[in-house]
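R.M. (postdoc): so does anyone remember the format we settled on? I'll just put the structure tokens first.
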């Protein structure tokens, strides 16, 4: 679905005419802070103050934000158990021409948070869904990780059971992009242990804990070292955590290995060229040797 709405001038001017004379409302997906209450945009505050209804993951939790910014709004819960009922109410309000905001307990709604079904249902009615962007723990963590940011994969929470978790990690083993996981404090140690067991103790990792809060900690190191560090300090097993892993180092493809070998073979005896090509590429010596023999033959 494409939406053709202009909201450049006003924080809540996203509604569109649908050709029937009715002007349906807009569902704003509003990001809220992940800790520090200062991390909310001026537009998010304007939207929360002006919409007819706020659907919140946990209305009691959001009260802290509302009181801090003196936001008085009609607020209903939107979580797994109230999904259907809330969705119907939201859609009715939108169809009536009023705007609604969706928020979660922290960060960007739908990012490991409820809202997916609601967005689909609103889109199915050809109503407008518009983002009010802001904090998300995964992006905050990635931005300070010092790991590659050009290409990454967010994998949410890993399974709680070690066997399923290891299986999931195995599926990421050769993935060359930065991996990002959310993790619960009571599972951080066993998760890191499984990561080290499956992906190797020498894989670089970052633990980003309690971002934007009092005990904010960002620690980068080899997985093996981080396991020991977390095991030795129970404070590191508290609060909210993001774990980031460096992507798998890429082994050169056959073409690249062949290019390296041919360059070396031009200058060096076969054995020496094979040894150097294996060192450079990380490919096993006997495999490089076999390729070198084929190249020498041809
Ligand atoms: N919607 C949120 C977002 O945009 O980041 C994520 C919600 S998810 C249910 C909660 C998880 O996000 C936590 O268990 C933790 O892994 C991560 N998280 C949230 N706030 C964080 C913070 N301040 N520091 C580190 N991780 C955080």
């Amino acid at each position: 679905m494409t939406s053709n709405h202009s909201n450049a001038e006003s924080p809540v001017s996203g509604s569109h005419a649908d050709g029937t004379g009715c002007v349906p409302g807009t569902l704003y997906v509003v990001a809220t802070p992940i800790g520090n209450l200062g991390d909310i945009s001026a537009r998010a505050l304007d939207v929360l103050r002006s919409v007819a209804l706020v659907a919140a993951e946990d209305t009691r939790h959001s009260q802290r934000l509302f009181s801090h910014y003196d936001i008085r709004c009609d607020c209903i819960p939107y979580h797994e158990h109230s999904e259907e009922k809330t969705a119907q109410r939201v859609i009715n309000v939108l169809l009536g021409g009023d705007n609604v905001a969706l928020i979660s307990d922290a960060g960007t709604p739908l990012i490991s948070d409820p809202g997916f079904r609601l967005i689909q249902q609103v889109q199915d009615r050809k109503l407008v869904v518009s983002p009010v962007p802001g904090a998300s723990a995964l992006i905050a963590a990635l931005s300070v990780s010092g790991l590659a940011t050009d290409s990454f994969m967010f994998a949410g929470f890993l399974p709680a059971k070690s066997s399923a978790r290891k299986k999931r990690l195995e599926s990421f083993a050769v993935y060359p992009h930065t991996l990002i996981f959310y993790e619960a404090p009571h599972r951080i140690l066993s998760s890191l242990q499984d990561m080290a067991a499956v992906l190797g103790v020498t894989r670089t990792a970052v633990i980003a804990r309690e971002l934007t809060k009092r005990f904010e900690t960002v620690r980068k190191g080899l997985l093996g070292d981080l396991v020991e560090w977390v095991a030795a300090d129970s404070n590191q097993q508290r609060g909210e955590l993001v774990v980031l892993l460096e992507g798998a180092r890429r082994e050169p493809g056959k073409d690249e290995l062949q290019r390296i070998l041919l360059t070396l073979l031009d200058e060096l005896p076969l054995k020496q060229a094979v040894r150097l090509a294996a060192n450079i590429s990380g490919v096993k010596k006997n495999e490089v040797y076999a390729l070198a023999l084929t190249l020498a033959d041809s």
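R.M.: ...and that's the designed sequence above, right after the tokens. Also worth knowing: Residues 254-297 form one domain. The beta strands are 26-30, 53-56, 75-77, 100-103, 128-132, 152-157, 178-183, 204-209, 217-222, 241-245.
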